[in-house]
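Sequence, please.
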């Protein structure tokens, strides 16, 4: 077989099918995830991209001997058609046309459909198994991933050095966190819990790493016990002496290869082991079950404590957003002026140039470590691709009278930022102003919401969509995702979306507020600030706590794209108050030239 690096996707699909035949199976499921269910995965785990060409952050493929399909959500319905051949894969919507339904419709009786149990959770496998079995087939785990067998130049697993996350930024010691989780386990009547999410482990142990791009994680597993003891299953080469000294003798470091044997020991000892069926690899759950463990199926016990940011984390987040906002002002001044000046020349500003320029501004900011994700830099029609990833080949010029969308963020030692701004290069038309203003009105509606304790994101989502719905418009992505503190820019369990997490919003939770509108082939609009859930008193006549949101992102919203006649007096007041706050906080960090630009960009309407 030739080196697969030189093979096109048709040849890669053919090689996989030949391997499946050798393994005695009739199909295979290829998820976008790694063993840790992460959004950002290392090059070694980019199996879906290698096989199909799809580079988005969420997706799955199903491969049979005579057909295949690729499943993506609403963010990627346009992108998948640009990256993946329809001759090789049928395009399916991950939510509306799920993989289990496709398998039920396409698998024949007696077929053996395989999967890698390290790459799928128990919940995911349950749904897929139901579809396969309804068709008369059987879903079987494989001990070796057949795609890895034909990916001959597959990169090695990452092995970067870890570092301790200091108490000044973490706000709580690892010992205190472990004791907190131990008490939660006791309450759940569990002796220990398997942690498979690297951000849970990073938060619990106060460690950070560089195993994946843009998210400071150490890829590893851990088991935390009700007495606060922890076994950390991590490549010893990742654990520096500095990290070891920051951990105490209740944290045992063990090689990842010993995880399964240790879990079998826990099972034989009759321990009650908590696993999260939504995130823990099915391989671990099945191993514990087979070994006779008493399984407690529940949400990762670290998720909620991690989501509720403490005072030090919140102070750091606010400080990071002030510094990041100043960098954004410098960028927006440059991009709006330079793009217009160069629009009719042979040297226009391009999407890629904008990415590099914004990074250069952030790199000058104290405590900056990395971008928090690949910057989405979309000019004109590329802005309509919600999660567009610019390349040298796709990079468009920023043209006169076109909309430019920039979605970006920074990883700072004291906080993670994520901000989207949409600007006009020149003069907008009336449709652009209408759509932008409706997105802004939805953004304001969510920003100013008050809601009782127990409210979850699905109950708030429609507030952001109402102004668009009034005009028969909508957007096919969530309105808000959780954000970590020098951790993942996407963090659960809290969300604001049509199909949202049932987890109620609580004070200290940190989320995005990002309604949008996308006109395929023409432009995209999104306005994104980050918000913190906070106490807002009590419900009138009741003893029920009332919550609202604190906005922490500081950056002008393009006044040229606003149609004030659509807005209420309260909307206009919010915008003017927001811009006054932006001026007050950012002006001390800017020189006279940028202060003058900021004053004009944030004048009252």
């Amino acid at each position: 077989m030739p080196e697969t690096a030189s093979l096109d996707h048709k040849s890669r699909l053919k090689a996989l099918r030949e391997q499946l035949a050798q393994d005695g199976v009739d199909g295979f499921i290829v998820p976008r995830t790694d063993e840790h269910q992460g959004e950002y995965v290392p090059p070694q785990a980019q199996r879906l991209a290698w096989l199909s060409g799809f580079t988005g952050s969420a997706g799955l493929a199903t491969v049979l001997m005579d057909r295949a399909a690729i499943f993506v959500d609403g963010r990627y319905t346009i992108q998948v058609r640009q990256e993946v051949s329809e001759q090789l894969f049928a395009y399916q919507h991950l939510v509306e046309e799920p993989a289990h339904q496709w398998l039920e419709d396409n698998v024949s009786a007696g077929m053996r459909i395989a999967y890698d149990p390290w790459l799928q959770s128990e919940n995911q496998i349950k749904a897929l198994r139901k579809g396969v079995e309804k068709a008369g087939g059987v879903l079987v785990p494989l001990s070796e991933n057949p795609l890895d067998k034909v990916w001959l130049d597959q990169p090695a697993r990452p092995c970067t050095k870890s570092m301790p996350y200091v108490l000044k930024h973490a706000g709580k010691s690892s010992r205190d966190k472990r004791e907190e989780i131990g008490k939660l386990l006791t309450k759940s009547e569990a002796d220990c819990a398997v942690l498979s999410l690297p951000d849970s482990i990073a938060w619990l142990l106060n460690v950070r790493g560089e195993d994946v791009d843009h998210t400071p994680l150490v890829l590893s597993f851990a088991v935390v016990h009700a007495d606060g003891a922890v076994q950390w299953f991590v490549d010893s080469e990742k654990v520096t002496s500095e990290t070891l000294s920051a951990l105490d003798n209740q944290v045992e470091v063990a090689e990842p290869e010993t995880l399964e044997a240790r879990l079998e020991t826990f099972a034989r000892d009759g321990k009650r082991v908590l696993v999260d069926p939504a995130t823990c690899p099915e391989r671990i759950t099945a191993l514990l079950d087979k070994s006779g463990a008493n399984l407690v199926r529940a949400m990762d016990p670290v998720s909620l404590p991690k989501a509720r940011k403490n005072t030090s984390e919140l102070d750091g987040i606010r400080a990071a957003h002030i510094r990041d906002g100043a960098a954004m002002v410098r960028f927006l001044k440059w991009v709006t002026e330079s793009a217009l000046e160069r629009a009719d020349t042979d040297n226009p500003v391009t999407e890629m140039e904008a990415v590099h320029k914004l990074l250069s501004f952030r790199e000058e900011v104290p405590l900056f470590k990395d971008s928090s994700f690949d910057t989405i830099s979309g000019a004109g029609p590329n802005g309509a691709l919600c999660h567009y990833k610019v390349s040298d080949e796709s990079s468009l010029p920023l043209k006169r009278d076109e909309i430019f969308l920039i979605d970006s963020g920074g990883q700072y030692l004291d906080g993670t930022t994520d901000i989207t701004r949409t600007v006009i290069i020149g003069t907008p038309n009336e449709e652009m102003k209408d759509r932008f203003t409706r997105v802004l009105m939805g953004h304001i509606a969510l920003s100013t919401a008050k809601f009782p304790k127990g409210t979850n994101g699905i109950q708030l989502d429609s507030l952001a969509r109402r102004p668009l719905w009034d005009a028969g418009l909508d957007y096919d992505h969530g309105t808000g995702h959780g954000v970590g503190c020098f951790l993942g820019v996407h963090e659960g369990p809290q969300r604001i979306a049509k199909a949202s997490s049932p987890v109620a919003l609580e004070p200290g939770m940190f989320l995005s507020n990002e309604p949008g509108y996308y006109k395929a082939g023409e432009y995209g609009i999104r306005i994104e600030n980050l918000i913190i859930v906070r106490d807002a008193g009590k419900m009138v006549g009741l003893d029920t706590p009332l919550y609202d949101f604190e906005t922490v992102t500081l950056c002008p919203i393009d006044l040229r794209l606003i149609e004030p006649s659509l807005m209420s007096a309260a909307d206009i007041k919010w915008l003017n108050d927001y811009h006054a706050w932006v001026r007050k906080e950012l002006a001390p960090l800017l020189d006279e030239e940028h202060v003058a630009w900021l004053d004009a960009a944030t004048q009252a309407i």
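Confidence is low (pLDDT under 50) at residues 1-6.
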